[in-house]
Design a protein that fits this description.
The complex is a heterodimer of chains A (269) and B (328). Chain A has 269 residues and is α+β, with helices and mostly antiparallel strands. Chain A has 9 helices and 12 strands.
């Protein structure tokens, strides 16, 4: 009881000092600076209420080079194994006479063999001698849904939707129950066994809050990935959505994804 | 109130109070600030340091490379895609220059039915004879300047102009009298048109050739090219070159994709080098290496050559037969 009292007294004092400090600072700074400082969250240079991030994927441009997967893993310290990834690319191949596509990703054993290890990423040229009727790549990542089911199921408030639209994970609060991994209909989340927490794409939150592009967008050599702020009508993503007929994955779930696709085939969802 | 009910209520009350205190104590300060989560975690996630630094970061020191890259058709492939993340560079050391370019380039350029048709693609088994891509292509400006210039000149007029302006250095029959100046007889006309045009425009510079080419009209360049292409390249065997031709032959494998096995190129946009003067060849390769003569492809090819390699290559090509006389 004594210890708790001491701690609560400390906390009260800290809060009190902080308020006094804040008031002193407020009195000493001009009104404009003060307003910006008060509103800017989470960082001094970035206000999350001003942004509405969205992502575009033009599947007709993707060449399946997997540089996005590599860039993402490097940028976000994703475990370097085939089955842990924040973004991935699926390959759909319709062979002549078959009415269902053959689907694989970098995690397919044939593709791991082609790249040489699970730390490198490459699509094997496995259909070069087959009669391919139609084939294409589809890049995927977290959809940062408007109504995210993963957030709904979290029992501890460790995942949430930020005001700028990105669904984030608080790794300190995550208890590793993996409900969210199960809840995501897109398979966008994975479980990091080493850290004991769930993880997923954040659209490189630490980059976009600094005015940079997400790592995968930065790395994509063909412009298949587009990112920007929908509040800015001239941003790449606003133009992408306005100038293309766009589609989202699994619209029937009502999650309202914020990744918009061009060039999806009927079998892709 | 009966005693046992009172006790129960007290117990319940104490339990509730303990629960509330526990909740207050264990809930992080910022937990309900914006909703059912810890607001502090947003700032924590945003505080992570970016690993990829973007090409603008590289430009600060590698300005020349950056300028070449950003003007060419690989400008959409950012530096860190091939060289890896620049975080901590240069303090923590150098970034890798990919050695196995055949492996690297094929990630995007291996022919696959799945790729969009607009993507440049090659059959790995048939392209480049198993050489590294960087042997011919400069990764920063990969497009080969293999555009074949149109040749529509008149050889007879070219002969006159040759006698007036060129013969004093390049010889009466297009066979140079000394080892420093190149033979022109039997050279590809399209190549001659391109190189003379480059000297004329200033895209390529040379102490002698720049001044000469500036006096030539486009028609005269065409005529000269047609004239030289029609000459016989047969020469008397020159004095023995300084380098080791056998060693040069091994190195020449890296040149064969464009210049042919013995220095007779298949594409008329690229020069024949078989039977060419050894000193001229060596000087030209050194000029490419020093950046005095400009060509993105050759710059990439000669980057790894030392002086001995260059002497050997020159000796090898100088010793080759320039082949049958080519119809212009």
């Amino acid at each position: 009881m004594k210890k708790r009292d001491a701690i609560s007294a400390l906390r009260a004092r800290r809060l009190f000092l902080r308020r006094i400090g804040g008031a002193a600072l407020a009195a000493g700074t001009p009104a404009v600076v003060q307003k910006a400082a008060a509103e800017s969250f989470p960082t001094p240079g970035y206000d999350w209420t001003k942004r509405r991030w969205a992502f575009g994927v033009d599947a007709t441009k993707c060449i399946g080079c997997l540089r996005c997967v590599e860039a993402c893993k490097v940028e976000n310290e994703v475990p370097l194994t085939a089955h842990h990834f924040r973004t991935w690319v699926e390959r759909y191949v319709y062979l002549e006479g078959e009415n269902r596509p053959r689907i694989d990703s970098h995690a397919d054993p044939v593709n791991i063999a082609a790249s040489g290890s699970e730390r490198e990423y490459r699509f094997a040229n496995r259909y070069q001698d087959a009669k391919v009727e139609k084939a294409f790549f589809v890049p995927k990542l977290c959809n940062q849904c408007e109504h995210p089911p993963c957030v709904q199921v979290c029992p501890v408030g460790a995942t949430y939707k930020a005001k700028d639209g990105v669904v984030l994970i608080d790794h300190k609060y995550c208890i590793g129950c993996r409900y969210c991994v199960q809840a995501c209909p897109y398979g966008a989340r994975y479980f990091d066994e080493e850290k004991g927490v769930s993880d997923k794409c954040t659209w490189c939150y630490h980059r976009i809050t600094r005015g940079l592009q997400p790592a995968c967008v930065e790395a994509c050599p063909v412009g298949a990935r587009v990112f920007g702020d929908r509040n800015d009508r001239q941003s790449p993503i606003s133009l992408f959505i306005r100038n293309n007929r766009v589609h989202v994955l699994k619209p029937e779930t009502g999650n309202a994804p914020n990744v918009f696709y061009v060039g999806l085939d009927k079998e892709v969802n | 109130m009966p005693k046992h009910v009172f006790r129960l209520l007290v117990l319940l009350g104490a339990g509730l109070a303990a629960a509330l205190v526990a909740k207050w104590y264990f809930t992080a300060e910022s937990f309900y600030q914006f909703g059912h989560y810890r607001a502090g975690s947003v700032a924590e996630i945003a505080a992570q340091e970016p690993v990829l630094q973007t090409s603008a970061y590289c430009q600060a020191c590698h300005g020349e490379r950056h300028a070449q890259w950003s003007a060419a058709n690989h400008k959409t492939v950012t530096c860190e895609v091939c060289h890896g993340p620049a975080q901590g560079h240069p303090q923590k050391g150098k970034l890798p220059i990919p050695a196995d370019t055949r492996q690297l380039c094929s990630l995007c350029h291996e022919r696959m039915a799945e790729r969009p048709r607009t993507q440049p693609q090659i059959d790995l088994a048939q392209h480049g004879a198993g050489q590294q891509c960087a042997a011919c292509h400069n990764p920063h400006a990969p497009k080969l300047a293999g555009v074949v210039a149109k040749v529509s000149g008149d050889a007879a007029s070219g002969r006159k102009k040759h006698a007036e302006s060129c013969a004093s250095c390049h010889g009466a029959d297009g066979i140079s009298p000394n080892d420093t100046w190149p033979n022109l007889a039997g050279q590809h006309a399209a190549y001659l048109v391109t190189i003379l045009g480059a000297y004329k425009s200033g895209a390529q510079t040379d102490v002698m050739m720049s001044t000469v080419a500036q006096t030539l009209s486009d028609a005269e360049i065409q005529n000269l090219a047609a004239y030289y292409a029609g000459l016989s390249c047969k020469t008397a065997a020159g004095e023995k070159a300084a380098g080791d031709a056998a060693a040069g032959k091994a190195l020449a494998k890296n040149c064969s994709a464009c210049h042919g096995d013995t220095g007779i190129g298949t594409n008329p946009a690229w020069p024949n080098i078989a039977g060419q003067k050894a000193v001229y060849l060596a000087n030209t390769l050194k000029a490419f290496r020093a950046g005095l003569r400009k060509d993105p492809m050759m710059a990439g090819v000669v980057r790894g050559l030392n002086d001995a390699d260059i002497a050997n290559l020159a000796a090898y090509y100088a010793a080759q037969s320039c082949g049958p006389r080519k119809p212009s």
